[in-house]
Design brief:
With 550 residues, the protein is an alpha/beta fold. Helices cover 43% and strands 13% of the residues. Keywords: Acyltransferase, Fatty acid biosynthesis, Fatty acid metabolism, Lipid biosynthesis, Lipid metabolism, Signal, Transferase.
Length: 550
């Protein structure tokens, strides 16, 4: 402890002297006296303050503080804390003839002065403060891999080919008995193999949203050519995971509640960690050894887009070279279905499931729940080039806004969505005229579809050759995973030159210009810039933009 005290004492002495010199100079009654007199006064005070500080340094108050710490670093931190809350001791006041009552001392030397003096003592010079960083060219972000788990398949090509053929993934719910519910259909994943992706023991324990996330994440790595050899060469401190979820582990948490009805001893010890939305990203990072940015975002059905844009920003800021990002959800369980039924948000077209999700159609009666995961592998351009990665598209940017209007209903004037699109264009450096493909949020709800369409026409109504479609017409609404899965559809449209149809659009809403909507068959399109929208309960708006890599 002697060594630590000797290390900290000179610093404390200097801080005490500096603090008291500034404090006393502010309180001097001779501030306007001639320079020679002021200099003399300051010199005398500085000497007196230093002498007093040396006495203060031996004060038992600080010695007692230091003796309770272990090591020089802890002692230094303790003394720094003491100095920051510094009030001069009696030795100082005695040396200046200022030994007074405690009440007068507090009035003459309020605690705020100490903090102010401390700020002066450590304030950098003006030259350092105003020095600007050299201008550097913004890093570019590209898509080098994708992974999907969906009602239309778990391989990218299978998934997108089904979309191009207009295949519907909506069917009767089979996971549980739902005869008592007014809605009995969903975009349900009937089966999925975990072989080679997740260990059987872990697969049995974790919630499906996490299972889908891990599988889609590893598929994105495989699609991006991240083999074991490539993985060994990555700087893992600059590889991150940002995959979110709107609902989290609802099944795991619901099972824990049922177990609790019997006894707390029956509760699964994994129920809390496996229910949280961040644990999927964490588990994937643990599996890969990736030590870069790692967290999840939950903004309801806008989650996927939020995660993609934030992941890209980590790369742009130089905090990561590679990011796995997207969303995952699996809420097709009794409490999930019941909750959305209670919101009166779901379609009840149970007798004809494949016709239930029908964005922009006059006979739409609500959205259809879906489940799955979408993960994109984003990479800094030069990093991708260096390893010879296959680049699918470039991520140009995006934006977020909030409607600040209603929990579930869109703003009547569409101002939040319009602002979000305009900010996304500005941030991406893309003109309105260059956007010729839009993968809309369009969920098949009466209000939401129309308000988004009106916002799109406000922004892009004069664009010739504009094509708009909704992936949800075939897979339903994948909640927090929807943005990521639809981003994959947008990238695939860029890659293949084909945009998928809108199915079930038999009687378009009155007043809509159907010429901008993709018809019942796939269409060829040379995409210049593709915009993908996602909106969520709470008024969360998000727009992201992709373009062919050039």
């Amino acid at each position: 402890m002697t060594g630590s005290s000797s290390l900290a004492s000179p610093l404390c002495t200097w801080l005490v002297a500096a603090c008291m010199t500034v404090t006393c100079s502010k309180e001097s009654k001779h501030a306007l006296s001639p320079p020679s007199s002021a200099a003399s006064n300051r010199s005398r005070r500085r000497k007196a303050a230093t002498a007093a500080a040396l006495k203060c340094n031996s004060n038992s108050k600080y010695n007692n503080y230091s003796s309770g710490m272990s090591g020089a670093g802890s002692s230094l931190q303790g003394l720094m804390s003491s100095c920051l809350a510094f009030e001069p001791c009696s030795h100082y006041y005695a040396s200046n003839g200022l030994l007074r009552s405690n009440r007068k001392l507090r009035r003459l030397h309020p605690p705020a002065l100490s903090g102010q003096a401390m700020a002066v003592a450590v304030q950098p010079t003006k030259e350092v403060e105003t020095k600007k960083k050299p201008h550097t060219k913004q890093k570019r972000v590209v898509v080098t891999g994708m992974g999907v788990v969906s009602p239309l398949g778990h391989e990218i090509d299978v998934f997108y080919n089904n979309l191009l053929e207009g295949v519907s993934g909506i069917s009767q719910i089979e996971a549980f008995e739902c005869a008592q519910f007014p809605t009995r259909i969903a975009g349900e994943i009937k089966s999925i193999s975990t072989d080679g992706w997740v260990s059987p023991k872990l697969a049995r324990r974790m919630d499906k949203f996490m299972l889908y996330m891990l599988i889609a994440g590893k598929k994105a790595l495989a699609d991006g050519g991240i083999s074991e050899d490539v993985m060994d060469g990555l700087n893992k401190t600059k590889c991150g995971v940002l995959i979110g979820s709107a609902m989290g582990g609802m099944k795991v948490f619901n099972d824990a509640i049922e177990a609790l009805r019997i006894s707390y001893k029956k509760v699964n010890p994994f129920s809390v960690p496996f229910a949280t939305t961040n644990m999927g990203s964490a588990m994937l990072a643990m599996d890969l050894g990736w030590m870069g940015p790692n967290y999840s975002i939950s903004t309801a059905c806008a989650t996927g887009n939020f995660c993609i844009l934030n992941a890209a920003n980590h790369i742009i800021r130089g905090e990561a070279d590679v990011m796995l990002c997207g969303g995952s959800d699996s809420a097709i369980i009794p409490i999930g279905l019941g909750g959305f039924v209670a919101c009166r948000a779901l379609s009840q077209r149970n007798d004809d499931p494949t016709k239930a999700s029908r964005p922009w159609d006059m006979n739409r009666d609500g959205f259809v729940m879906g489940e799955g995961a979408g993960v994109l592998l984003l990479e800094e351009l030069e990093h991708a080039k260096k390893r010879g990665a296959n680049i699918y598209a470039e991520f140009l940017g995006g934006s977020f806004t909030c409607d600040a209007y209603h929990m579930t209903e869109p703003r009547p004037d569409g101002a939040g969505v319009i602002l979000c699109i305009e900010k996304a264009l500005a941030q991406s450096g893309v003109s309105k005229e260059d956007v010729n493909y839009i993968n809309a949020h369009a969920t098949s709800t009466p209000a939401g579809d129309l308000k988004e369409y009106q916002a799109l026409m406000h922004c892009f109504g004069h664009n010739s050759g504009l094509r708009v479609n909704s992936t949800k017409s075939m897979i339903g609404h994948l909640l927090g995973a929807s943005g990521a899965v639809e981003a994959i559809a947008a990238v695939q449209a860029i890659k293949t030159g084909w945009v998928h149809p809108n199915i079930n659009l038999e009687n378009p809403e009155q007043g809509m210009d159907t010429s901008v909507l993709v018809g019942p068959k796939k269409e060829r399109l040379d995409i210049k810039a593709a915009l993908s929208n996602s909106f969520g309960f709470g008024g969360h708006n998000s727009s992201i933009i992709f373009a062919p890599f050039k």
